[in-house]
Amino acid sequence: MALKLRLTRMGSKKKPFYRIVAVNSEARRDGRALDYVGYYNPMTDPADIKIDQDKVAMWMQRGAKPTETVQSLLKKSGLAS
Asked: Which long-range contacts does 17-22 make (Cβ < 8 Å, 24+ apart)?
């Protein structure tokens, strides 16, 4: 089973926010997640990013690979180089 750290869309029409989730790579975008590791709200100024460092580290050790977008959010929050 290939694991990914990716975004899932939440919120109402024209007011999105995103949860950062650990999920099987074959699952749907908004399908059932294995774990919720943070959130990203692009509608605020500046954008609100909250990520649980311990959960991200745990899933990365288990082989989860972040998507490009999640990787950039990790960089912005200071968790990845």
From this structure: 17/41, 17/42, 17/43, 18/42, 20/51, 20/70, 20/73, 22/55, 22/59, 22/64
Please state, in angstroms and as integers, the Cα–Cα distance from residue 56 to each residue in 14, 15, 17, 53, following that order. 28, 26, 19, 5
Residues 67, 73: Cα–Cα separation, whole Å: 10
d(CA 44, CA 62): 32
Count other C-beta atoms under 10 Å from residue 69's C-beta: 14
The tens digit of pLDDT for each residue in 32-56 reads 889 999 999 999 989 999 999 999 9
Domains and CATH numbers, the chain: 3-66 (3.30.1320.10)
Q: How many Cα atoms within 13 Å fall on the side-chain side of residue 54?
A: 0
